[in-house]
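Before the break, one more example. Copy the sequence into your notebook; we will annotate it together after we see the structure.
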Amino acid sequence: MNDFDYLSEDEVYLDAACQSLRPRPVIEALNKYYTEHNSCGERVKYKWGIKTDELVEETREKVLKFLKLSPRKYTTSFTLNTTYGLNLILSQIDPKHFKKIMTSEIEHNSPFLATLAFSEKTGLPRELIKRNDDGSITISDYDFDRAIVVVNSASNFDGRKLLNIKELEKAVHKAGGILIIDAAQAMAHSADILKGVEVDAICFSAHKMYAPSLGGIVWRDDLDKVLKPLWLGGGMVDDVEADSYKLSAENKEHRYTRFESGLQAWGEIIALGAAIDWHEHLPKKDWQNLENNTREVFEFLNSSSKVHLINQEPNPTMAFYIEGLDSHLLGEALSREKIMARTGYFCAHYYLDHVLHLPPLVRFSLGLHNRPEDIEKIKKVMKNVI
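Here is what the structure looks like once it is written out:
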């Protein structure tokens, strides 16, 4: 793909689940901000600032449109990353409205530790939910009565998806609870699972969806009812007196300020808008290329008795270990061949180490930048290893 023409022919990047590479239009959008209207948003009336405000507002709208959520019900706020967003929401939830907090066993440390800290801080009990091999939850096994439920929509080690997310949303809301989704791994390649599902909040990392390093929170406006503002500062208030203040978030047009303290990453936000445009207009052949590459790597790994693949089915994110071979040493060997892959437990220590009792793993996470030549190189090098 020409949008990744800066890649050397002999380099193979397989760590898109950590952060995706950025296509040329995204890089250009970020550079354009810095070279043509590098300015503060929301605070100025000069031409550069007005341009910045317009493009940032367009990105907020693009995120909602991408997820097929109504701007009458939802707001887009920007943060640092998914971890930051989840902690930011949980830090402001008033526990008096709820009976417990729940998360699942296959979570990244972002929701796993954030829910643990919330339970320790508030005294609310914490419950772990089991996930099926396909990523779904057996809803009838759990009581969601006034529960805060924080789960991923796609796993970061094998890509398994929360296939019954709509049913979960209905069950949680019927029981008087709220549902917060870690969408870090879904936004780039599995966003369809999220579209139109009216959960209470979706946290995501733009840097995993071909955009610059940035986080986002898409949240239902009525989540306000259970929040207490704790982080306050510049850009969040309309007026301040000696011992009182008026929150900007009380105004629907500025509700996003609820989670946006201080100066924002204006250029990165604008470039996220460019990434969404790029993503939405990709030709079918590029998606087909990713699907073909994914299937070929999956079938190759699955064909060897020495390779223990965690995945049950093909997914751009796949984790495995090779019998009798230390995964970290394998990662170093791949690096010497200019193949870049992650090794370890991928911030999912509890499930991979203490539930499945697996050794450290290797993770191949493919992206839209990968070429058929990359796959041939992977197979050639891995054949020698096996």
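The chain has a mean pLDDT of 96. Residues 37-279 form a domain with the Aspartate Aminotransferase; domain 2 fold (CATH 3.40.640.10). Try to locate both features in your own notes.
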